[in-house]
Amino acid sequence: MKILPYQPDQSGLAYSVGTTLDRFIKLKQSDFPFASGELSQLLRDIALASKIVNRETNRAGLSNIGGAFGQTNVQGEEQQKLDVIANIRFIRALSKGGEVCAIVSEEEDAVIDLQNKSGKYVVAIDPLDGSSNIDVNISIGTIFSIYRRKTPIGSPIQEEDIMQPGTEQVASGYVLYGSSTMLVYTTGFGVNGFTYEHSLGEFFLSHPSIQAPKNGTIYSINEGTQEEWNSGIKEYIDACKSANFSARYIGSLVADFHRNLLKGGIYLYPATQKNPNGKLRLMYEANALAFIAEQAGAIATDGTKRILEIQPTSLHQRTPLFIGSEIMVTEAVEHLKKHQFSIK
Ligand SMILES: O=P(O)(O)OC[C@H]1O[C@](O)(COP(=O)(O)O)[C@@H](O)[C@@H]1O
Ligand SMILES: [Mg+2]
Ligand SMILES: [Mg+2]
What we know:
The chain is an alpha+beta fold and 344 residues long. It has 2 domains: 21-207, Fructose-1,6-Bisphosphatase, subunit A, domain 1 (Fructose-1,6-Bisphosphatase, Chain A, domain 1), CATH 3.30.540.10; 218-338, 3-Layer(aba) Sandwich (D-Maltodextrin-Binding Protein, domain 2), CATH 3.40.190.80. The protein is built from 8 helices and 15 strands. It has helices at 21-28, 38-58, 81-97, 159-162, 231-242, 253-263, 282-295, 326-338; strands at residues 68-72, 78-80, 100-105, 112-113, 121-129, 140-148, 169-177, 181-186, 191-197, 202-207, 218-220, 246-247, 266-269, 299-301, 321-324. The chain has an 8-stranded mixed beta sheet with strand order 4-3-5-6-7-8-9-10, with helices on both faces. Strands 12-11-13-15-14 form a 5-stranded mixed beta sheet, with helices on both faces. The protein has a two-stranded antiparallel sheet with strand order 1-2. α5 (231-242) crosses α8. It is globular and about 65 Å long. The N and C termini lie far apart (80 Å).
Protein backbone atom coordinates (compact mmCIF):
# COMPACT_ATOMS: atom_id res chain seq x y z
CA MET A 1 0.00 0.00 0.00
CA LYS A 2 1.56 3.29 -1.15
CA ILE A 3 1.42 6.20 1.38
CA LEU A 4 2.46 9.63 0.22
CA PRO A 5 3.04 12.57 2.60
CA TYR A 6 0.67 15.50 1.78
CA GLN A 7 2.56 18.36 0.07
CA PRO A 8 0.98 21.56 1.47
CA ASP A 9 1.62 24.70 -0.61
CA GLN A 10 5.20 25.89 -0.34
CA SER A 11 4.27 29.47 0.61
CA GLY A 12 5.17 28.75 4.19
CA LEU A 13 2.27 30.97 5.14
CA ALA A 14 -0.07 29.53 7.77
CA TYR A 15 -2.75 30.46 5.33
CA SER A 16 -2.74 30.34 1.56
CA VAL A 17 -4.89 31.51 -1.31
CA GLY A 18 -8.17 29.68 -0.99
CA THR A 19 -8.29 29.86 2.80
CA THR A 20 -11.80 30.80 3.87
CA LEU A 21 -12.28 34.15 5.60
CA ASP A 22 -13.51 32.37 8.70
CA ARG A 23 -10.39 30.23 8.94
CA PHE A 24 -8.16 33.20 8.17
CA ILE A 25 -9.75 35.27 10.95
CA LYS A 26 -9.21 32.38 13.36
CA LEU A 27 -5.55 31.96 12.30
CA LYS A 28 -4.85 35.69 12.50
CA GLN A 29 -6.32 35.93 15.99
CA SER A 30 -2.88 34.87 17.20
CA ASP A 31 -1.65 38.33 16.16
CA PHE A 32 -3.45 39.61 19.26
CA PRO A 33 -2.02 38.04 22.42
CA PHE A 34 -5.07 39.06 24.47
CA ALA A 35 -7.60 38.27 21.74
CA SER A 36 -10.94 37.11 23.07
CA GLY A 37 -12.60 36.46 19.72
CA GLU A 38 -14.95 39.47 19.80
CA LEU A 39 -13.21 41.34 17.00
CA SER A 40 -13.15 38.12 14.99
CA GLN A 41 -16.88 37.73 15.51
CA LEU A 42 -17.45 41.36 14.54
CA LEU A 43 -15.56 40.85 11.27
CA ARG A 44 -17.71 37.78 10.61
CA ASP A 45 -20.86 39.83 11.25
CA ILE A 46 -19.71 42.42 8.70
CA ALA A 47 -18.95 39.66 6.19
CA LEU A 48 -22.42 38.20 6.71
CA ALA A 49 -24.17 41.54 6.16
CA SER A 50 -22.06 42.17 3.06
CA LYS A 51 -23.23 38.84 1.57
CA ILE A 52 -26.84 39.98 2.00
CA VAL A 53 -26.15 43.42 0.54
CA ASN A 54 -24.25 41.74 -2.30
CA ARG A 55 -27.37 39.71 -3.12
CA GLU A 56 -29.49 42.88 -3.11
CA THR A 57 -27.05 44.79 -5.34
CA ASN A 58 -26.85 41.91 -7.80
CA ARG A 59 -30.59 41.91 -8.34
CA ALA A 60 -31.21 45.65 -7.94
CA GLY A 61 -32.35 45.86 -11.56
CA LEU A 62 -34.84 42.98 -11.21
CA SER A 63 -36.65 44.02 -8.10
CA ASN A 64 -37.98 47.42 -7.13
CA ILE A 65 -34.96 48.19 -4.96
CA GLY A 66 -33.29 50.42 -7.56
CA GLY A 67 -33.84 54.16 -7.59
CA ALA A 68 -34.37 56.89 -5.02
CA PHE A 69 -35.86 56.28 -1.58
CA GLY A 70 -37.54 59.68 -1.52
CA GLN A 71 -35.70 61.07 1.50
CA THR A 72 -32.47 63.01 2.01
CA ASN A 73 -29.84 62.08 4.59
CA VAL A 74 -28.01 64.36 7.02
CA GLN A 75 -25.62 65.30 4.19
CA GLY A 76 -28.55 66.68 2.22
CA GLU A 77 -28.03 63.91 -0.35
CA GLU A 78 -30.99 62.05 -1.80
CA GLN A 79 -30.90 58.55 -0.36
CA GLN A 80 -31.11 55.65 -2.78
CA LYS A 81 -33.24 52.67 -1.75
CA LEU A 82 -30.08 50.57 -1.61
CA ASP A 83 -28.44 53.10 0.73
CA VAL A 84 -31.31 52.53 3.15
CA ILE A 85 -31.40 48.75 2.68
CA ALA A 86 -27.64 48.43 3.20
CA ASN A 87 -27.86 50.66 6.27
CA ILE A 88 -30.60 48.50 7.80
CA ARG A 89 -28.75 45.25 6.98
CA PHE A 90 -25.46 46.31 8.53
CA ILE A 91 -27.04 47.84 11.63
CA ARG A 92 -29.10 44.69 12.14
CA ALA A 93 -26.08 42.37 11.73
CA LEU A 94 -23.94 44.51 14.07
CA SER A 95 -26.62 44.74 16.73
CA LYS A 96 -27.42 41.01 16.55
CA GLY A 97 -23.69 40.12 16.67
CA GLY A 98 -23.41 41.51 20.19
CA GLU A 99 -19.88 42.95 19.94
CA VAL A 100 -20.81 46.55 19.12
CA CYS A 101 -22.01 49.26 21.52
CA ALA A 102 -22.41 52.17 19.07
CA ILE A 103 -22.62 52.82 15.32
CA VAL A 104 -21.87 55.93 13.27
CA SER A 105 -23.46 55.64 9.81
CA GLU A 106 -23.50 57.94 6.79
CA GLU A 107 -27.25 57.38 6.62
CA GLU A 108 -27.94 58.25 10.28
CA ASP A 109 -27.90 61.80 11.66
CA ALA A 110 -26.89 60.73 15.17
CA VAL A 111 -24.80 58.01 16.80
CA ILE A 112 -26.82 54.81 17.23
CA ASP A 113 -26.45 53.58 20.80
CA LEU A 114 -27.14 49.82 20.65
CA GLN A 115 -27.78 49.72 24.41
CA ASN A 116 -25.47 46.73 24.50
CA LYS A 117 -24.00 46.38 28.00
CA SER A 118 -21.27 43.99 26.83
CA GLY A 119 -20.30 45.56 23.49
CA LYS A 120 -16.77 46.99 23.43
CA TYR A 121 -16.53 48.11 19.81
CA VAL A 122 -17.67 51.23 17.95
CA VAL A 123 -18.25 50.92 14.19
CA ALA A 124 -18.29 53.82 11.71
CA ILE A 125 -19.80 52.75 8.38
CA ASP A 126 -20.63 53.96 4.89
CA PRO A 127 -23.19 51.24 4.13
CA LEU A 128 -23.29 51.94 0.41
CA ASP A 129 -20.49 53.87 -1.25
CA GLY A 130 -20.83 55.17 -4.79
CA SER A 131 -24.59 55.66 -4.57
CA SER A 132 -24.69 57.59 -7.86
CA ASN A 133 -23.62 54.36 -9.60
CA ILE A 134 -26.20 52.00 -8.09
CA ASP A 135 -28.75 52.13 -10.92
CA VAL A 136 -26.23 52.01 -13.72
CA ASN A 137 -24.58 48.72 -12.74
CA ILE A 138 -21.18 50.20 -11.90
CA SER A 139 -19.10 48.96 -8.95
CA ILE A 140 -20.20 50.20 -5.54
CA GLY A 141 -19.02 49.36 -2.03
CA THR A 142 -19.26 49.44 1.75
CA ILE A 143 -16.61 51.05 3.97
CA PHE A 144 -16.11 50.39 7.70
CA SER A 145 -13.89 51.47 10.61
CA ILE A 146 -13.73 49.67 13.97
CA TYR A 147 -12.63 51.23 17.26
CA ARG A 148 -12.50 49.96 20.86
CA ARG A 149 -14.64 52.10 23.13
CA LYS A 150 -12.65 54.30 25.58
CA THR A 151 -15.06 54.32 28.49
CA PRO A 152 -15.85 51.23 30.62
CA ILE A 153 -17.97 48.54 28.93
CA GLY A 154 -21.60 48.88 29.93
CA SER A 155 -21.33 52.56 30.85
CA PRO A 156 -23.20 55.22 28.83
CA ILE A 157 -21.64 55.99 25.43
CA GLN A 158 -19.50 59.16 25.65
CA GLU A 159 -18.13 61.56 23.03
CA GLU A 160 -14.63 60.13 23.60
CA ASP A 161 -15.84 56.69 22.50
CA ILE A 162 -16.90 58.10 19.14
CA MET A 163 -14.65 61.04 18.28
CA GLN A 164 -11.46 59.00 17.94
CA PRO A 165 -8.73 59.80 15.38
CA GLY A 166 -8.04 57.17 12.72
CA THR A 167 -4.84 56.14 14.49
CA GLU A 168 -7.09 54.49 17.11
CA GLN A 169 -8.74 52.11 14.61
CA VAL A 170 -8.34 48.44 15.56
CA ALA A 171 -9.53 47.35 12.14
CA SER A 172 -10.94 48.80 8.92
CA GLY A 173 -11.94 47.63 5.49
CA TYR A 174 -14.24 47.77 2.55
CA VAL A 175 -16.43 45.51 0.46
CA LEU A 176 -16.41 46.01 -3.31
CA TYR A 177 -19.54 44.88 -5.15
CA GLY A 178 -18.07 44.74 -8.63
CA SER A 179 -17.51 42.19 -11.38
CA SER A 180 -16.53 40.04 -8.42
CA THR A 181 -17.32 40.81 -4.81
CA MET A 182 -14.35 41.36 -2.55
CA LEU A 183 -13.77 42.08 1.13
CA VAL A 184 -10.46 43.80 1.92
CA TYR A 185 -9.46 44.56 5.50
CA THR A 186 -6.67 45.17 7.99
CA THR A 187 -6.30 44.73 11.73
CA GLY A 188 -2.99 46.55 11.70
CA PHE A 189 -1.03 43.48 10.55
CA GLY A 190 -1.08 43.96 6.81
CA VAL A 191 -3.92 44.02 4.27
CA ASN A 192 -5.65 40.94 2.87
CA GLY A 193 -8.33 40.58 0.20
CA PHE A 194 -11.00 37.91 -0.08
CA THR A 195 -13.16 37.08 -3.09
CA TYR A 196 -16.75 35.92 -2.66
CA GLU A 197 -17.61 32.54 -4.17
CA HIS A 198 -21.36 32.92 -4.66
CA SER A 199 -22.16 29.26 -5.16
CA LEU A 200 -20.46 28.35 -1.89
CA GLY A 201 -21.51 31.51 -0.05
CA GLU A 202 -17.93 31.89 1.19
CA PHE A 203 -15.19 34.51 1.01
CA PHE A 204 -11.84 32.95 0.04
CA LEU A 205 -8.41 34.53 0.43
CA SER A 206 -7.45 35.73 -3.05
CA HIS A 207 -5.11 38.66 -2.39
CA PRO A 208 -2.79 37.90 0.57
CA SER A 209 -0.58 40.64 2.01
CA ILE A 210 -1.50 43.39 -0.47
CA GLN A 211 1.30 45.89 -1.05
CA ALA A 212 0.57 49.01 -3.11
CA PRO A 213 3.12 49.91 -5.79
CA LYS A 214 5.23 52.87 -4.58
CA ASN A 215 4.53 54.72 -7.82
CA GLY A 216 1.91 54.57 -10.57
CA THR A 217 0.54 56.12 -13.76
CA ILE A 218 -3.17 56.40 -12.91
CA TYR A 219 -4.87 59.50 -11.50
CA SER A 220 -8.50 59.59 -10.31
CA ILE A 221 -10.21 62.95 -9.89
CA ASN A 222 -13.57 64.36 -10.99
CA GLU A 223 -12.30 66.68 -13.74
CA GLY A 224 -15.74 68.25 -13.86
CA THR A 225 -14.75 70.28 -10.80
CA GLN A 226 -11.46 71.59 -12.26
CA GLU A 227 -12.74 75.18 -12.39
CA GLU A 228 -12.80 74.99 -8.61
CA TRP A 229 -9.32 73.50 -8.08
CA ASN A 230 -6.52 75.59 -6.61
CA SER A 231 -3.47 76.05 -8.84
CA GLY A 232 -1.51 73.38 -6.96
CA ILE A 233 -4.03 70.72 -8.00
CA LYS A 234 -4.22 72.09 -11.52
CA GLU A 235 -0.42 72.00 -11.79
CA TYR A 236 -0.23 68.41 -10.49
CA ILE A 237 -2.95 67.12 -12.84
CA ASP A 238 -1.26 68.92 -15.76
CA ALA A 239 1.98 67.16 -14.79
CA CYS A 240 0.13 63.81 -14.82
CA LYS A 241 -1.21 64.60 -18.28
CA SER A 242 2.19 65.65 -19.63
CA ALA A 243 3.54 62.37 -18.31
CA ASN A 244 0.79 60.57 -20.28
CA PHE A 245 -0.68 59.08 -17.13
CA SER A 246 -4.14 57.51 -17.48
CA ALA A 247 -7.22 59.28 -16.12
CA ARG A 248 -9.52 56.74 -14.44
CA TYR A 249 -12.54 57.91 -12.40
CA ILE A 250 -15.43 55.56 -11.58
CA GLY A 251 -17.15 57.88 -9.14
CA SER A 252 -17.25 55.16 -6.47
CA LEU A 253 -14.49 55.87 -3.96
CA VAL A 254 -14.10 52.18 -3.01
CA ALA A 255 -13.69 51.10 -6.65
CA ASP A 256 -11.25 53.91 -7.55
CA PHE A 257 -9.25 53.27 -4.37
CA HIS A 258 -9.15 49.49 -4.93
CA ARG A 259 -7.87 49.79 -8.50
CA ASN A 260 -5.15 52.24 -7.51
CA LEU A 261 -4.18 50.10 -4.48
CA LEU A 262 -3.48 47.12 -6.73
CA LYS A 263 -2.13 48.87 -9.84
CA GLY A 264 -0.54 52.01 -8.41
CA GLY A 265 -2.24 55.38 -8.67
CA ILE A 266 -3.66 58.36 -6.82
CA TYR A 267 -7.22 59.35 -5.93
CA LEU A 268 -7.76 63.05 -5.28
CA TYR A 269 -10.85 64.79 -3.94
CA PRO A 270 -9.59 68.28 -3.07
CA ALA A 271 -11.37 71.14 -1.37
CA THR A 272 -13.50 72.96 -3.94
CA GLN A 273 -15.78 75.98 -3.77
CA LYS A 274 -18.80 73.61 -3.65
CA ASN A 275 -17.09 71.44 -1.02
CA PRO A 276 -14.64 73.74 0.84
CA ASN A 277 -13.68 70.83 3.10
CA GLY A 278 -13.66 68.29 0.28
CA LYS A 279 -16.49 65.80 -0.22
CA LEU A 280 -15.45 62.58 1.47
CA ARG A 281 -16.36 61.94 5.10
CA LEU A 282 -13.54 61.51 7.61
CA MET A 283 -15.09 58.99 9.99
CA TYR A 284 -16.53 56.39 7.61
CA GLU A 285 -14.73 56.92 4.31
CA ALA A 286 -11.28 58.55 4.65
CA ASN A 287 -10.10 56.96 7.95
CA ALA A 288 -10.88 53.39 6.92
CA LEU A 289 -9.15 53.66 3.55
CA ALA A 290 -6.21 55.59 5.04
CA PHE A 291 -5.57 52.71 7.50
CA ILE A 292 -5.67 50.22 4.62
CA ALA A 293 -3.45 52.43 2.48
CA GLU A 294 -0.78 52.84 5.16
CA GLN A 295 -0.84 49.11 5.97
CA ALA A 296 -0.24 48.43 2.25
CA GLY A 297 2.68 50.87 2.03
CA ALA A 298 0.67 53.71 0.43
CA ILE A 299 -0.23 57.06 2.03
CA ALA A 300 -3.30 59.22 2.73
CA THR A 301 -3.32 62.94 3.53
CA ASP A 302 -5.62 65.95 3.53
CA GLY A 303 -2.83 67.89 1.86
CA THR A 304 -1.27 69.05 5.10
CA LYS A 305 -1.30 66.02 7.46
CA ARG A 306 -1.95 62.27 7.70
CA ILE A 307 -5.69 61.59 7.50
CA LEU A 308 -5.28 59.23 10.49
CA GLU A 309 -4.04 62.11 12.69
CA ILE A 310 -7.10 64.31 12.14
CA GLN A 311 -9.05 64.69 15.40
CA PRO A 312 -12.75 64.35 14.50
CA THR A 313 -15.01 67.13 15.78
CA SER A 314 -18.30 66.20 14.11
CA LEU A 315 -19.81 62.91 12.96
CA HIS A 316 -20.20 63.73 9.29
CA GLN A 317 -17.26 66.11 8.85
CA ARG A 318 -15.63 66.10 5.44
CA THR A 319 -11.95 66.23 4.54
CA PRO A 320 -9.91 66.80 1.38
CA LEU A 321 -8.45 63.40 0.41
CA PHE A 322 -5.24 62.54 -1.46
CA ILE A 323 -4.67 58.80 -1.21
CA GLY A 324 -2.61 56.23 -3.07
CA SER A 325 0.94 55.41 -4.13
CA GLU A 326 3.53 57.08 -1.94
CA ILE A 327 5.53 58.83 -4.68
CA MET A 328 2.42 60.18 -6.43
CA VAL A 329 0.74 61.51 -3.26
CA THR A 330 4.00 63.05 -2.05
CA GLU A 331 4.38 64.80 -5.43
CA ALA A 332 0.79 66.05 -5.39
CA VAL A 333 1.30 67.50 -1.89
CA GLU A 334 4.47 69.28 -3.05
CA HIS A 335 2.47 71.01 -5.78
CA LEU A 336 -0.20 71.92 -3.25
CA LYS A 337 2.34 73.36 -0.82
CA LYS A 338 3.94 75.42 -3.58
CA HIS A 339 0.60 77.19 -4.16
CA GLN A 340 -0.92 77.00 -0.71
CA PHE A 341 -1.26 80.75 -0.44
CA SER A 342 -2.75 81.26 -3.91
CA ILE A 343 -6.58 81.57 -3.84
CA LYS A 344 -6.89 79.83 -7.16
O1 LIG B 1 -19.75 62.79 -7.99
P1 LIG B 1 -18.48 63.25 -7.37
O2 LIG B 1 -18.53 64.67 -6.84
O3 LIG B 1 -17.30 63.03 -8.23
O4 LIG B 1 -18.28 62.36 -6.05
C1 LIG B 1 -18.04 60.99 -6.17
C2 LIG B 1 -17.62 60.52 -4.81
O5 LIG B 1 -18.74 60.63 -3.94
C3 LIG B 1 -19.05 59.34 -3.38
O6 LIG B 1 -20.08 58.76 -4.13
C4 LIG B 1 -19.51 59.62 -1.96
O7 LIG B 1 -19.88 58.45 -1.33
P2 LIG B 1 -21.41 58.00 -1.11
O8 LIG B 1 -21.88 57.46 -2.40
O9 LIG B 1 -21.27 56.97 -0.05
O10 LIG B 1 -22.20 59.20 -0.65
C5 LIG B 1 -17.78 58.54 -3.51
O11 LIG B 1 -17.97 57.17 -3.58
C6 LIG B 1 -17.22 59.05 -4.83
O12 LIG B 1 -15.84 58.90 -4.96
MG1 LIG C 1 -19.23 56.95 0.33
MG1 LIG D 1 -22.67 56.03 1.08
